[in-house]
TrEMBL record:
Entry annotated with the keyword Magnesium: no
Keywords: Kelch repeat, Repeat
Protein name: Uncharacterized protein
Pfam families reported in the protein's UniProt record: Kelch_1 (PF01344), Kelch_KLHDC2_KLHL20_DRC7 (PF24681)
Organism: Rotaria sordida
Taxonomy of the source species: Eukaryota, Metazoa, Spiralia, Gnathifera, Rotifera
InterPro entries from the UniProt entry: Gal_Oxase/kelch_b-propeller (IPR011043), Gal_Oxidase_central_sf (IPR037293), Kelch-typ_b-propeller (IPR015915), Kelch_1 (IPR006652)
SMART domains the record matches: Kelch
Amino acid sequence: STSTTASTTGWSIITASMSYGRYFHTASILTNGNVLVTGGLGSGGTLHSAELYDPSTEVWRSTGNISYARCQHTASILTNGKVLVAAGYDNGIYLNSAELYDPSTEVWTGTGNMNYTRNYHTASLLTNGKVLVTGGSDNGVSLNSAELYDSSTGVWTGTGNMNYARYGHTAAVLTDGKVLVTGGYGNSGYLSSTELYDPSTGVWNITSNMNYARLLHTASILLNGKVLVVGGSDNGAWLNSVELYDPSAGMWNVTSSTNYTRYQHAASVLTNGKVLVTGGSSSGVALNSAELYDPSTGVWNAISNMNYARRDHTASILTNDKALVTGGYDGAALNSAELCQL
């Protein structure tokens, strides 16, 4: 085991792999419990393909292709159960196109284009049902623009600009409906700044800085409403530092570090409130380690290693409380997927 506190929790490889190896893709849990994987980067380039995973049979199958091949995009489950895929990158082209997947017909249809092309952006479903997209990169230039998608009209409209342009950042919807954006990379370097978006006014307000600048980190909303930020990269250094944002105080506090430095990892909140962090990379090497954070103790415990090291993968908590990890990169795009009973 990886540490004296490693649990017996094990990872099992799903016998049927995805049809395509992919990383920089998305994975979305549909209202029927199936998982929709879209796009990404494969061995032959950017992918149009989408695949569905059925947890009851543990089988993958193909579903309708997206109209535009894309990676480093976002996928959001709308209140009507459809999936909105937006922007991204395809072989030197930055995209502003968006499309909708209907799980009942398995067909993709185009919807309104965004006002700006972008990749490495964020997309958050607001409590009013609109989707807020923030920042990202356009030809290597960090963006401060934000826009809202209205599913009733299919139209994107601009909203207030962030105070700092950023990509590779995070966005988390707080319990009061505001959106907390953290870190990323700006036009002057790595960012420790964080800001709050108020959907009722469309305005961004600066809140306190994180203790560490970080890029390609994760942010997870805990059951107590605090936000847990993990790892990332700062100016060539890989981080194991972890901090908590308290929305009521507007302050960041450092908590226990992870056992491994990592960025390009995934973080998922379990139904019991613990946070599972998987994979990523450190010093250019993909990781197979996984660890669990317990908010009640503030302690990280290593669990069993995944069967495959992977970065830029996805991790989804299924309705049966198993963790599903898909794809990623370790010298090549991976088509493997694995499950962990937590």
